[in-house]
Amino acid sequence: MNRFIISFISVFVLVIASGCGSADTPETDSELLTQQQTNPSPSSYARVSLDWFGTYHGVTPCADCEGIDTTLELTRDESFVLTIQYLGKDDEPQTTEGDFFWNEAGNTVTLAGVENRPAQFFVAENAVIQLDMDGQRVTGDLADLYILRKQSESEGN
């Protein structure tokens, strides 16, 4: 009889546990990345658990041009190459190279030597999110435009 009760309780706990969390499933990339940024667990820190090295690309908003074509390459030796081009304004891209460092939480990189533009990126699964000049996540209707997607090897330079 005791085995039956223990088995029943075990099954009941499994059923309850499997139903938990489904209401919190993010619907958009932005919601998923926000959850990763605001609720990191020690086992999910980007620095130790993601294949963060690689090339990321996107077109971020621009106040006085069509957009900023942005490519960021992060290497395993913690160096970077940042290439930006102001679309409809610049003929040639601007490239900055240097080292980057991780924040204490292991989820955000700061590009050393980058001035007069955002230099911090939150690292997520197959993406980096450009943070604002104060290191904060951009919110609102344009938030998804600050996500740079990781390129596959075949898309690389």
Automatic annotation (TrEMBL):
The keyword Chaperone does not apply. Keywords: Signal. It holds the Pfam family NlpE. InterPro entries: Cu-R_lipoprotein_NlpE (IPR007298). The keyword Magnesium does not apply. Residues 1-23 form the signal peptide. This is NlpE N-terminal domain-containing protein. It comes from Cyclonatronum proteinivorum.
